[in-house]
Amino acid sequence: MFAIIESGNKQHKVEEGMTIEVDLLQTDKKKIVFDHVLLFANDKDIQIGQPYLENVTVSAKVVDEVKGEKLQILRFRRRKHSMRKIGHRQKFTKVKIEKINLGS
Fold it and tell me: Are 95 and 32 in contact (CB under 8 A)?
């Protein structure tokens, strides 16, 4: 059983017990409910939302806030002897999927 959820304009395929990293969520809560479920697949059937499923939610627990790997950005102007090197580290929220909840 798995579901595809949307968080931060990105789609994630999740299963129960899985740990994923989503874009930083500005919340103090330890539990999060994702209600933007695009697809739910069970052993027997598949439900596809238009655009979201109304009766399916995914509950998760916030584990940690982490930083991704560093990206190096180099701006270079040819023949001008000018360079600028900067870096960026994206922040993520690590969540553990606890349960995929089905409504009626």
Answer: yes
| Mode of pairing for the β-strands spanning 31-34 and 19-23 | unpaired
Rounded Cα gap, residues 74 and 76, in angstroms = 6
Per-residue pLDDT of the chain (104 residues; tens, 9 = 90+): 999 999 999 999 999 999 999 999 998 999 999 999 999 999 999 999 999 999 999 999 999 999 999 999 999 999 999 999 999 999 999 999 999 999 85
Greatest alpha-carbon pair distance for the chain in Å reads 66
Structure tokens at 46: 């598949």
Q: Where are the alpha helices (DSSP H) in the chain?
A: none
Angle among Cα 34, 39, 45 to the nearest 5 degrees reads: 130
Question: What's the token pair of residue 48?
Answer: 């596809």
